[in-house]
Automatic annotation (TrEMBL):
Higher taxonomy: Bacteria, Bacillati, Actinomycetota, Actinomycetes, Micrococcales
Protein name: Oxidoreductase CzcO
Organism: Demequina sediminis
Tagged with keyword Oxidoreductase: yes
Keyword Nucleotide-binding recorded: no
Keywords: Oxidoreductase
Gene3D superfamilies reported for this sequence: FAD/NAD(P)-binding domain
Superkingdom of the source species: Bacteria
Alphabetical list of Pfam families matching this protein: Pyr_redox_2
């Protein structure tokens, strides 16, 4: 039976990263009362996934953030954010100021375990130790991002490897790999950043990717045209309910200062993906084995949507059918920052549309 004792609100937004905060901002501007809106976030403080990134990561260059809607009201902008401080500190401070300025009351830490249908809409059940146990909502906006769901490719023998294995989300410092033989797997900016940082501590690195990386001579990752193509491909996959392709496989990588530095140092040497792992190393396509001490899986992330599985909206291949931010067949359920909304710029633009649709839906059920 549904837990009808839980508090009932009009909207629950799950996640207080870029997408979740942008939607909350527009919901408040469209007249949703603060006490009828609940924003839940699993992090201990503001900053979304950025608060968990490694200390050496800074903003600027290859890592950029677009301002949230209404961010000018805080007196801050990411356009001139400090590039000499850890990004996780800067983003946390900016997001905290944004929440205060716009009266977005975020309840944290809250880990949403699962959603179920409720006579009023949905029952949001939270994991033990969360700041709230459960909440009922007429509509739900899931903006949970990807940071907690790293993607690791299936490689025979991976569980036998006795060395260290970490994902991008686990990476803390290059110093932990000082003097080690490290395989970096992945074709995105994080993988290149690791190659650069590891070389500075004397690690011996090998770079592996599934496909040959493509580089373009633009300083930014997404030019308008490249961005339109990426959004169209992501949108087509989302509408069809298929797993989402990685952005870098669509856009390629900019020939940034980081790329040029790695090229000039001879460290941008790519190897085809290994076929298996042993207790002490990697098996190449020709059958030879390379000994390594550690593997860093910089192989991207999947959307964190496990909490939506009880609703039956997640397909067998792991995708959700989403059109313009709304889950097909679930008029009260929306996804923010998913598919074509994955970049910080597109999530900002989509937040206004999502908020309007949420308010329109509330009007039909009131």
């Amino acid at each position: 039976m549904p837990d009808t004792s839980a508090r009932l609100v009009d909207v629950v937004v799950i996640g207080a990263g870029q997408a979740g905060l942008a939607v909350a901002y527009h919901l408040l501007r469209r007249g949703v009362q603060p006490d009828r809106l609940m924003v839940l976030d699993r992090g201990p403080g503001p900053g979304g996934a950025w608060q968990h990134r490694w200390p050496s990561l800074t903003l600027g260059g290859t890592h950029r953030l677009h301002d949230l809607p209404g961010m000018a009201d805080t007196g801050l902008t990411f356009a001139n954010a400090p590039a000499d401080r850890p990004a996780r500190e800067v983003v946390a401070e900016y997001y905290a100021a944004y929440e205060r300025t716009h009266g977005i009351d975020v309840v944290r830490p809250v880990t949403v375990a699962h959603l179920d249908r409720d006579p009023e809409g949905y029952l949001v059940t939270c994991a033990p130790g969360s700041a709230v146990a459960a909440v009922r909502a007429r509509t739900v906006v899931s903006a949970t991002g990807t940071w907690t769901s790293p993607r690791i490719p299936l490689v025979w023998g991976r569980e036998r490897f006795r060395g260290r294995q970490v994902t991008t989300a686990d990476y803390a410092s290059a110093r932990e790999f000082e003097g080690r033989r490290v395989a970096v797997v992945g074709g995105g900016t994080s993988a290149l950043t690791f190659l650069d940082e590891l070389a500075a501590v004397g690690a011996s690195t090998l770079w592996f990717t599934r496909r040959v990386p493509t580089f373009h001579d633009e300083e930014v990752e997404l030019s308008p045209e490249r961005g339109r193509v990426a959004v169209a491909i992501q949108d087509e996959a989302a509408r069809a309910g298929r797993p989402l392709p990685s952005i870098v496989s669509v856009t390629g990588l900019p020939r940034s200062a980081l790329v040029r530095r790695l090229e000039s140092a001879g460290r941008l040497v790519r190897h085809p993906m290994f076929t298996a792992m042993t207790e002490t190393g990697l098996v190449m396509r020709n059958g030879t084995e390379l000994a390594v001490d550690a593997v860093i899986w910089a192989t991207g992330f999947r959307p964190e949507i496990s909490h939506l599985r009880p609703l039956g909206v997640v397909g067998e291949t792991g995708g959700i059918a989403v059109e313009d931010g709304g889950v097909v067949g679930e008029p009260g359920l929306f996804l923010a920052g998913y598919g074509p909304q994955a970049s910080t710029l597109s999530s900002n633009r989509a937040a206004r549309v999502t908020a309007r649709k949420v308010v329109d839906h509330l009007a039909t059920i009131s």
